[in-house]
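Work Package 4 report. The design task specified in the project plan requires that, given a folded chain encoded as structure tokens, an amino acid be chosen for each position. We show below one input record used in the internal validation round.
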């Protein structure tokens, strides 16, 4: 059996160690989330380093399992084809780009809700107090109340997970191996990557636009799409550069 390539193995171990630390350290999950999750920029917990650190935090066992399964499945192939350096650059650019795109969309939505809430009669001082304390007198109007809850959710709910980087890997794999058959648990037969990966992206786009998700609430759909977009742009850039073969982007033996 071939050994797992070193960058994939290191990323896997790092994610597992951070996840385990959240349970083993006293108050570990809160401490790690406060420092490492990607918080909304107006939140006191926000830090620039979180554009990287959030990729190593996961919400629960299912979250980390599926991300790490995909990392090993697709990352192993890509690292063996590209080499450690190129794979590492690709992974982090996709993950960072995914986080920034999601935060940018959240920022735009937050300020749109702020303007709407002020127009409905809530003062900026009242909204600031609600954000700071997490409490206050709720409006009676159902639509305004719903907007207020979403406004607070954007402010107080950080982003975690490697999914943005993973979606970049999915796109790269589909770019290089479009006819490879992939088997997913909710699809009974293997389907070619060139069909199943665009299908996943369309599903994320649908969920991001409509708010309806087949996989539950709390998913950063635009981070998935952002990671996929960065991955696609990198693949186009590397394909058009002179030097490495356009199909393999240089193979390295390990």
């Amino acid at each position: 059996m071939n050994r797992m390539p070193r960058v994939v193995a290191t990323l896997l171990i790092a994610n597992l160690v951070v996840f385990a630390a959240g349970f083993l350290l006293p108050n570990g999950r809160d401490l790690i989330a406060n420092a490492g999750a990607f918080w909304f920029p107006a939140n006191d917990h926000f830090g620039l380093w979180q554009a990287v650190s959030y990729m190593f935090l996961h919400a629960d066992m299912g979250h980390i399992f599926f991300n790490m399964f995909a990392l090993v499945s697709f990352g192993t192939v890509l690292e063996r084809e590209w080499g450690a350096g190129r794979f590492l650059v690709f992974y982090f650019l996709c993950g960072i780009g995914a986080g920034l795109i999601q935060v940018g969309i959240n920022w735009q939505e937050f300020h749109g809700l702020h303007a709407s809430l002020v127009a409905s009669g809530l003062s900026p001082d009242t909204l600031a107090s609600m954000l700071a304390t997490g409490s206050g007198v709720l409006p009676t109007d159902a639509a305004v109340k719903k907007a207020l809850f979403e406004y607070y959710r954007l402010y107080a709910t950080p982003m975690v997970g490697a999914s943005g980087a993973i979606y970049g890997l999915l796109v790269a794999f589909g770019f290089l191996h479009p006819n490879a058959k992939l088997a997913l648990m909710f699809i009974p037969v293997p389907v070619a990557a060139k069909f199943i990966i665009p299908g996943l992206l369309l599903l994320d786009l649908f969920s991001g636009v409509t708010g309806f998700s087949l996989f539950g609430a709390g998913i950063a759909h635009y981070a998935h799409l952002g990671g996929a977009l960065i991955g696609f742009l990198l693949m186009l850039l590397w394909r058009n550069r002179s030097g490495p073969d356009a199909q393999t982007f240089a193979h390295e033996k390990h």
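Residues 86 and 230 are 14 Å apart (CA to CA). Validation will be extended to a larger panel in the next phase.
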